[in-house]
Amino acid sequence: MASFFGEIIQQPSRAFWDGFEEVEDNEESMVEKKPVFTLFNVKEGDTEIEAYDIMIFATDDISSRFTTASLISTTSKHIATVEESIENNDNLKKKRVTAELFKVDDKILLLKCVSVVDICYANELLSCITPWLNCSKEVIILASKSVNEYKSLNHSSVLENSFLRCLKTKSFKNSTFCPSLECPNSLTGFPAAVASWCQVKDQPCIVYLYYYIIHSVSITSSINVEPLTKLFQKFQWYQQFQRIHKIGDIKSVDLHNQFRHIIENSNLYM
Asked: Which residue has the higher pLDDT, 194 or 17?
């Protein structure tokens, strides 16, 4: 599926499989079953959803952990949970929580993706939270990639440090605070789906893509997120929020169980 901010498609594989006879013999069992995304524990929207100034999307493990530390306070309210369910060949449903929606304060919403969103079904997740997206004046999307995935003529000059790049919709008029994402780099999956929706709806939206470095390969490794902290501190709304809730500077987030996921999605072939 094409979008304004990249192709929402699966990445090509370097593994080849020749199993035409098996597909013919087991055609029914090979049919892919589409997951169903459902909202539950909804604490807002029974009558009318409130208007918000900003809706923030934390679309992966790193941005989710960063926003948990920098935005979730004792006064934050959990609004809804998005659950993904899919039936296997025995008609048994497998369920998992995909995302959680929080009211950070009276004017700010946060959607945290707590598990990996299959890029084939990014639009299904998007449709679940569209009612809140419609009621938000501006959208901020946080996504992250390894610096190994960054493509540039001056590639070696940026490999030593983590850095930020951005993409914005036509209607976004505020300061971006970092350089734009250069070609041939692109945005994929859920972040691309949200940004494309905003472009079509003429809604101000900016995507911040954080290119990170892992300094040590260990199960307790952490990732430096100081560029994200410095970015947030340039937002007037966050300056006030940080002062009111006495939130310190977030310098890093722990990987722990997320480390395997990052390695599996890197450019390493094992």
From this structure: 194
| Cα angle, residue 131 at apex, residues 200 and 245 outer, rounded to 5° | 105
Asked if the model's pLDDT at residue 219 lies above 50, the reply is no
Domain coordinates of the chain in residue numbers? 34-264
Query: Which residue matches tokens 């691309």?
Result: 192
* Confidence (pTM): 0.82
Distances (CA, A) of 54 to 57, 62, 132, 204, 257: 10, 20, 10, 10, 30
Residues whose CB falls within 8 Å of the CB of residue 56, separated by 6 or more in sequence, listed in order: 67, 71, 104, 108, 109, 110, 111, 139, 140, 141, 142
β-partners of residue 164 are 210
Phi/psi region, residue 41 (left: phi>0; alpha: psi -120 to 50; beta: rest), is left
Once rounded to an integer, what is the mean pLDDT over residues 200-228?
84
> Superfamily for 34-264?
PAC-like subunit (3.40.50.10900)
Q: Which of 79, 202, 63 is nearest to 134 (CA)?
A: 202
